[in-house]
Write a structure and sequence with these properties.
There is one protein chain. About 40% of the residues lie in helices and about 30% in strands. The protein has about 120 residues and is α+β, with helices and mostly antiparallel strands.
Length: about 120
């Protein structure tokens, strides 16, 4: 399955979670529910996946953690904020570069319509 096909299924699962819960909850609640839905759909999902930083050939554990990593190739960063900013986008781009993944989804659940809170982020290796 390609990253694009996978992202379409993930977006469907996120919409299901958002439809059930609505906006206004903590990020952790949405993360747990989306994790549950993706696992239920049969995907390999890692939650709070540690992501080391390599600097001058030294692997540093700096505390970076990907919210959800699906099938080892799609990064999902979950937010529950008033609005997404450039720093949120930069965070996902950094995670993509550090992990060598090609595609990430930045999902803000604190919106009325979830499609307004989804940003696809592409790593142009």
């Amino acid at each position: 399955m390609t990253e694009n096909e996978l992202s379409n299924i993930v977006i469907g699962c996120a919409i299901k979670v958002h439809s059930a819960l609505g906006p206004g909850l903590l990020e952790s609640a949405y993360k747990e529910c989306l994790f549950y839905e993706l696992r239920r759909a049969g995907f390999a999902v890692e939650k709070e996946k540690p992501l080391p930083l390599v600097y001058e050939l030294v692997k540093l554990e700096c505390g970076y953690r990907v919210d959800l990593l699906v099938e080892g190739k799609l990064i999902i960063e979950i937010k529950a904020v008033e609005g997404l900013t450039d720093i949120h986008l930069a965070q996902v781009l950094t995670y993509l570069k550090l992990s060598n993944c090609k595609l990430g989804l930045l999902i803000n659940f604190n919106v009325v319509l979830l499609k307004q809170g989804i940003k696809r982020v592409v790593n142009n290796l």
